[in-house]
Amino acid sequence: MTLMLWSALVFSACTRAPVGPVGALAPGGWTLDNNQRAKLSDYKGKVVVLDFYATWCEPCRAETPRLVELQRQYTAQGLQVIGLNVGGEEDREQVPNYAKQFGIQYPLAFPDDELADGYLGDNQNIPQALVFDRHGTMVKRFVGYSESSGAELERVVKASLSQ
Known about the structure:
163 residues, alpha/beta, Glutaredoxin, 7-stranded mixed beta sheet, 5 helices, 36% helix, disordered N terminus
């Protein structure tokens, strides 16, 4: 498959999809590395980026530095990035090294099946970054990663933070 065709397939999946009330579309939540539970509604009032990734996924690895920088730059304005590992059971043990390698300061967690299925059910490609506004409404869904999609992700985050 040519790079142009692959890019067209990946980015044609990007959508602007309202989800409704916080957590309404995809029930469930995630488990943090300290076994604490969390869900999207816990972050009401913040702009949230849920990033579905795997440590072995090269586009995910390309996206991670951008997410680290977004979290660093916009924390004070109310941004919360949350990495949700969907790399499978065997990938779980790689997460601490991944966090260390990339200097990740945002939470890394493991989503419930119902949460992952609710958001990724129609397209299992990763990475996927879902941006939610301060009310828990999905503003944009990014499937795949490139420098241009990273710039658009930052634009959407900044716009959401300013509302």
